[in-house]
């Protein structure tokens, strides 16, 4: 009897638990997507900074934020640090992409196992044309007088 209860704790029992688990998985995927996008923007900013300061005189002063504190350095000191940060961000993005792929695989297996089908919003409006008429909002503007 104990073995039966332990197997039940691993497997979702009812439809609501399955839907909650699925929603949590989708939420995790969306969080990973948003984090990847955020980090890609940071990589882009790092590239812009490197491109802007690299051709300048290496002994020239520049300022860099380190741990929330603005620090004065030379370009010669800053460029390698910014490049290391950029490379670190790219590694994190690569790991997040791997995690994203494994989550996608996990969610597709979950969909197959529990026969989950997602309805699209477009299919609902095609099925009931009256919904489309009532939901349209807009303002008609005539020619200027």
TrEMBL record:
<dbReference type="GO" id="GO:0044183">
    <property type="term" value="F:protein folding chaperone"/>
</dbReference>
<protein>
    <submittedName>
        <fullName>(wild Malaysian banana) hypothetical protein</fullName>
    </submittedName>
</protein>
<feature type="compositionally biased region" description="Basic and acidic residues">
    <location>
        <begin position="121"/>
        <end position="131"/>
    </location>
</feature>
<keyword id="KW-0143">Chaperone</keyword>
<feature type="coiled-coil region">
    <location>
        <begin position="79"/>
        <end position="113"/>
    </location>
</feature>
<dbReference type="InterPro" id="IPR027235">
    <property type="entry name" value="PFD2"/>
</dbReference>
<dbReference type="GO" id="GO:0005737">
    <property type="term" value="C:cytoplasm"/>
</dbReference>
<comment type="similarity">
    <text>Belongs to the prefoldin subunit beta family.</text>
</comment>
<dbReference type="InterPro" id="IPR002777">
    <property type="entry name" value="PFD_beta-like"/>
</dbReference>
<dbReference type="GO" id="GO:0051082">
    <property type="term" value="F:unfolded protein binding"/>
</dbReference>
<dbReference type="GO" id="GO:0016272">
    <property type="term" value="C:prefoldin complex"/>
</dbReference>
<dbReference type="GO" id="GO:0006457">
    <property type="term" value="P:protein folding"/>
</dbReference>
<keyword id="KW-0175">Coiled coil</keyword>
<dbReference type="Pfam" id="PF01920">
    <property type="entry name" value="Prefoldin_2"/>
</dbReference>
<dbReference type="InterPro" id="IPR009053">
    <property type="entry name" value="Prefoldin"/>
</dbReference>
<dbReference type="GO" id="GO:0009409">
    <property type="term" value="P:response to cold"/>
</dbReference>
<feature type="region of interest" description="Disordered">
    <location>
        <begin position="121"/>
        <end position="145"/>
    </location>
</feature>
